[in-house]
Design goal:
The chain has twelve helices and five strands. By secondary structure, it is mainly alpha-helical. A hairpin with a 4-residue loop joins strand 4 and strand 5. Helix 4 packs antiparallel against helix 5. The longest helix has 19 residues. The chain is globular, with a radius of gyration of 21 Å.
Length: 301
């Protein structure tokens, strides 16, 4: 999990500007930059997504589950229209709403390939037939030139699922996904230290309410990592564009809290994390961790 978060935020930190395209009457239209590594592109573990779709009880239940298993775009397109209609007609108060929302989020592909044409071709940024088919169902993709992919644009409000449906497993799974994103909408645009502060604030409230839920120990690890980041920043040498001073107050408490939570995580973990022993040793010796999570020194402002 730690490596996943680190790599995600390294990617987010260096991707500071890019273009999003839509279309009107099949003509490309430029829109302002939009975050790539935000909630729309987050993904759950495959087995978790599969359970959500099985518990969604769509009209084409087995076909939806099969499409989730194969990840075949044509198969997804055949079932997605009906699934979207059922989901949109499901009241938010329904017990089925969280599972259906989570399933739709996972069923919709995060990326679609562009046309296989030379880079200098005017067709390069034109919507592919598959992109157009998804658009007809109300699922919009925008073109991200740096990767040459079409990237999905918010088919589901993951933040609402993660904050308003915590009484459901699927709200709690969404909460974990948002935690891994540092509660950022992408590109660290909220500021360099928004992420670790939000993970701590929201994560501690979650653990108070749900100390033993299916996602709680993963949240516990994330909060420990956020506290470890706070401590590490407080003793990082000052350099251009960065000062450790804002992180000094309560840094010692953050170090102690990180140790406490890492140890709790290991005590409760089915599979111990091989890195935690070293994290705890480093923190006890009051050294900085070599790698930190939930912080972007370079961010979109």
């Amino acid at each position: 999990m730690r490596k996943h978060i680190k790599h995600l935020y390294l990617a987010s930190a260096i991707l500071l500007a890019f273009c999003r395209y839509g279309w009107t009457d099949d003509l490309p239209v430029y829109y302002p930059p939009s975050p790539k590594y935000g909630p729309s592109q987050a993904s759950a573990a495959f087995d978790v997504a599969l359970v959500a779709c099985r518990e969604s009880h769509f009209q084409q239940d087995e076909l939806v589950v099969s499409a989730m298993q194969t990840r075949d775009e044509d198969q997804i397109l055949r079932v997605l229209g009906t699934a979207l209609e059922v989901w949109r007609a499901t009241p938010e108060t329904s017990a089925l709403y969280p599972a259906r929302t989570f399933c739709i989020h996972e069923l919709v592909p995060k990326y679609l390939q562009r046309m296989n044409v030379p880079d200098d071709s005017p067709l390069k940024t034109q919507p592919t037939p598959v992109v157009t088919q998804f658009k007809a169902l109300g699922v919009v993709y925008w073109y991200y030139a740096d990767d040459g992919d079409w990237v999905v644009q918010n088919p589901v409000d993951l933040v609402s699922l993660a904050t308003e449906h915590l009484n459901s497993r699927w709200g709690r799974e969404a909460f974990l996904m948002m935690t891994k994103l540092g509660w950022s909408s992408g590109n660290c645009q909220e500021g360099p230290d928004h992420q670790f502060r939000e993970v701590i604030k929201r994560g501690e409230a979650f653990l108070t309410a749900y100390p033993k839920a299916e996602t709680s120990n993963s949240i516990r690890f994330a909060v420990a990592s956020a506290y470890a980041t706070w401590w590490t920043l407080s003793i990082t040498p000052q350099r251009a564009g960065f000062s450790p001073e804002p992180y000094g107050p309560e840094a010692e408490q953050a170090r102690e809290k990180a140790i406490e939570l890492y140890l709790q995580h290991e005590e409760l973990a089915k599979t111990p994390n091989p890195y935690v022993e070293n994290y705890v040793k480093t923190l006890r010796e009051k050294h900085p961790l070599r790698e930190i999570d939930f912080f972007c020194e370079d961010y979109e402002d």
